[in-house]
Amino acid sequence: MKHWIAFAGILLLGIAAVVVSEWRKADVPVGPAAVLYLVADTEQELTRLPVRFTRMSDQEEIGIGDELAAGYLPEPNRTANADTLEIEKYLKQVGARLAPHAHRQLPYKFHFLPDKSLINAFALPGGHVFVGAGLLSLMDSEDELAAVLGHEIEHIDHSHCAERVQREKALRRIPLGGWVALPVAVFEAGYSKDQELEADREGTRLAVESGYSANGAIRMFETFERLYEEHQARAKTPQQELSNVAFQTLEGYFRSHPLPSERIDQIRRLISSEHWAARPEHDLAVGYIFWTDRAKEALDARKYQLAEQLATRSLRVRSGQENALRVLAQAQFAQANFGAAASCYRKLLDLDQARVEIGDAYLYAQALAASDGSRAAGEFQRWEESLRGQRPRDLQVPMAGLSLLAGSPSLAKSVSAVATASVDDPGAADWLANLGWWYYRAGDYGTAQELLNNAVQLRPANSQITTELAWAQIENRKLADAMRTLAASDDSGDSPDRGMAKAVGFWQSGQPLAALSHFETAIARQPEWENERWVRALYSSRVVQSIQDMQAERLRRKRARTADQRSQAPSNRQRA
Questions:
Q1: What predicted TM-score, i.e. pTM, was given to this entire model?
Q2: Among the residues of 73-192, which ranges form H helices?
């Protein structure tokens, strides 16, 4: 009898499962993912049963949401930077365009979280929607943002957030007024598969009703599909696309959301069934902020061409950005595109003539000199004459250096005399060092060594000045002195410039093994050293020749190793 009862129970469950599956018309691909979704959905439904029939009022939901939001928002007296304020304002504008089309007319509020590792968005009950910087940085259009905001609005609109709060209250036994203790992960985590797909559908519908293209949702999910494939492939260097922290965030996102491919298929079917006409997508008005950030990251990673492309794209949308112009100038200079770099530095300096950045002025002079040393002094002087008000005293040094390159040493001698006589002046060491390097660039290595040696006496611990002195000593054939200078205050944090100075010094001293070791390290950290045009514009012909010789020797040794390995291969097979 017991066996028959058990059998009848199993049979009834099977029939119920068939009925439910036919009623839901779920579109799940065959495979283990379907089983996982079944388990997740079952657990979700079991936890929701006690609260489904006791839905809270809108006012109660709004109050809880406001209390929760207070724990995630910045302190009222904390001033955000200009970019954060602009992005926050933009989110509110796009959100305000979507919110009136929601079924429940709640006080929807939209917030930006400037966390680059947060590749997610989440909603709180009552109307608060948060978007992370990491997610925004992946977008190219306002329509993608509208799809994301629409998705989160629908989690609120369909009471998914409210039910999540009620469930957490029951599970955690949260006392009255204790909502702020709920961690953000509770809301960042996905909902059931049905709820996520419902938010996708209704969020896209909301965006379309607000005038956006449904393709925004598809393109957003296509981005997630690409990242999902990278995540599944376990790339050896995920930093190429995202930081490790961001990758960990994505791992949690993919565990708690439907597969991107399934979400894309659903939206395509929705577009077809609703007969939505194709619409042009809107530009992401704040995209330039993220493109500039990515350009800076590419520059730091020595990916100069990518940095130039991203900075140019950013400036095309919003010209006159100080950070983007500086990144663009540095990327162009690193690629030996000195004329373009000089033009970029000039634009940067013209942004605010009343507040000249001396560092940018020095780099402008360096770019002019590398581009055309004979005309550089005239170009720099014309810029100086365009300045309003009193000119900064420090501009005398680059002007003197450029005049020196043009064959007029009088100003350089005058500035040198003033700097040498002003050793008590805190800026004297910088003047002497900078002027010494201009003499190096002009080929007067004796004067360069003298001035740089004086600068080292004033700043003995300055690695940049000691490295420049070593370069001058190498040109004066004081190789032992140069190696002692480079060994002084030596540490594992050598700059690429210092490392290459050691490589050239060892090479010219007849120590090829040590030279090649430092050479490999220097070019790995600063690929400009393999660009002959860049080296020739900034260093002596002896340095150019030494680098060419080391490159040839490195290639010769590599070929010899390859030939040796090939010659040993047959004998190894014979022994086998």
A1: 0.80
A2: 82-98, 133-136, 142-157, 160-172, 185-188
